[in-house]
Amino acid sequence: MTAFRGVGRKASAVLALTALGACSEDPKEEGFLDAARIDARVQDAAVNDGGGGAGGGGGEVTVHTRLSMLKRVRPDSGAGALDLVIYDIDDDREANLTANAGGQVDCTIRCALNRQMTSIGWLQRGAGTGNELWVAPIDTVHFEVKIDEKRKVADTVQHFEFTNDGKRDLVVSMQGEAVGPEGQYQVMVEPVAAYDQAACDAGGDLEDLSACPQLAGAVNINGGFRVTPFGALIILIRTDLSSMTISFFNVSNGASQALDTFGSMNGTGSQFAAGLPVGLSPDASYLAVFTRDEFLWKIHNLQAIPNPPDPVRLELFETDGDRMGDCQRPAPFDFNVVQFDPRFDESGDHVFFMATGDCSKQNSPGVANRDDYDILRVDKSMAADSVVSVTKNLRSNSWANHELTSFDLSKDGKRLVFTAPRPNDNANRSVWMIDADPAQAFPEYICGKNSTPVAAEDGHSRCEFLFDAVPDAKVFYESVRFHEVEVRQ
């Protein structure tokens, strides 16, 4: 892996919460809480997705900015490898966590780190029909998985994420085997570290609920969940034929709170699914919810309070396959798909999201041969005139028309990182980093230490942040993510 040292260089701008599945309004049946209590609980939830200690040493604690990403090396002949690698921006230091784990961490199905980079989890094929979920702690000083301390969390796991309620690291997983259209999965929350099974079987400590496994709720086969910056809060998503219902589960007190239903329950036909982008603002005041309904992509600002008012919404663009035609709106709305969960700046005033589509191909048939991608930013007011492009991706049949495959925003909202093909080399994929201020006429690219700015036909130059040129092999970076890690020197 090749990267930059310290703060790096810049390329020249020129040349360079639901009651699960029910529609009743009975507060007791739905698990509603009074507004004062839920508001207090929301604001008291700890903003902490890490914890667990810095791992090793007993000296001064410093905060390092790191990246994690998947790296796939595919030789022209022979077997390839898929690894989870990390890169410390402050120390210019890299590590391959899966290789250092002696082959016991498998990223084929899914592997992920928590935000504080103190835990790793992965899914692997079990003896039965489901996937086993395994977790292990990480030494954040020596960049090592403590594989001798790994433990199996559950069988038949469909998906998992990490969070932290201010007391301990937690793993949230969707478990079970949902059979048929009415089948359901259980969303479970439990400590990452081994817990006192006997004490939990006896009822546990009512003043410390997260010390034991909890059932957050049940979701249907097209449902799911999200973790949030307020680690004690989990978003549950349940869908039916024509609607999507959003709720909160509070790990700290075991309370559920229905928020809103999008669409029309018990209708026919649906474009709703738990994979639609959803995120909670850093101050927990609202959710950004993207829907694909009536052949329109929309973003909603849904207040995170009980019985919220109707969300403020903005129509973005028609979906692909719209009967009346898509790709008819002017920039920056000339897309037809939204991908991945949104990101927020530190204040929560702005929402960042990825828009993509084939509008250039549709509008210039036989000429354009690449899809369109951009990271857009919208104000939380959902005003149409607040939507701006951050990446300002070039629309051309060129490498400078970045084909984005993942993105993340730094905690302070100042840097945007994404994965896309290398300059003049569509067969390999690298990591790119830019300044996230959309007010610039062209984004400033943060160059890696061995990266050379490459000029494109628009007169601007762009440079990679991380790349790896392996002879006789293709290298792909994916799923890039920022981490703020406490390191004890």
Indicate the radius of gyration in whole angstroms. 23 Å
Number of strands: 32
Gross morphology is: globular
Characterize the main sheet. Answer: 5 strands, antiparallel
End-to-end separation in angstroms reads: 25 Å
Work out the strand percent: 35-45%
Low-confidence stretches: 3-54
Given helix and strand content, the structural type is: mainly beta
- The average pLDDT value, as a whole number, equals 85
Helix content: under 10%
Q: How many helical stretches? A: 4
Explain what this protein looks like in three dimensions:
This protein has 489 residues and is mainly β. It has 4 helices and 32 strands. It has helices at residues 27-30, 35-44, 197-201, 359-363; strands at residues 9-10, 61-75, 81-88, 93-96, 110-113, 119-125, 131-139, 144-145, 151-154, 157-164, 169-175, 184-191, 214-220, 224-227, 233-239, 243-250, 255-263, 278-280, 286-293, 296-303, 312-318, 337-344, 350-357, 372-379, 388-389, 406-409, 415-422, 425-435, 446-447, 454-455, 461-462, 473-488. Strands 5, 6, 7, 8 and 9 form a 5-stranded antiparallel β-sheet that branches. The longest helix has 10 residues, at 35-44. The radius of gyration is 23 Å and the shape is globular. Mean pLDDT is 85; it is low at 3-54.
Features:
mainly beta, single chain, 43% strand, 4-stranded antiparallel sheet, 489 residues, disordered N terminus
Could you outline the blueprint of secondary structure elements for this entry?
Blueprint: E1 9-10, H1 27-30, H2 35-44, E2 61-75, E3 81-88, E4 93-96, E5 110-113, E6 119-125, E7 131-139, E8 144-145, E9 151-154, E10 157-164, E11 169-175, E12 184-191, H3 197-201, E13 214-220, E14 224-227, E15 233-239, E16 243-250, E17 255-263, E18 278-280, E19 286-293, E20 296-303, E21 312-318, E22 337-344, E23 350-357, H4 359-363, E24 372-379, E25 388-389, E26 406-409, E27 415-422, E28 425-435, E29 446-447, E30 454-455, E31 461-462, E32 473-488
Antiparallel strand pairs: 1-29, 2-3, 2-32, 3-4, 5-6, 6-7, 7-8, 7-9, 10-11, 11-12, 12-13, 14-15, 15-16, 16-17, 18-19, 19-20, 20-21, 22-23, 23-24, 24-25, 26-27, 27-28, 30-31
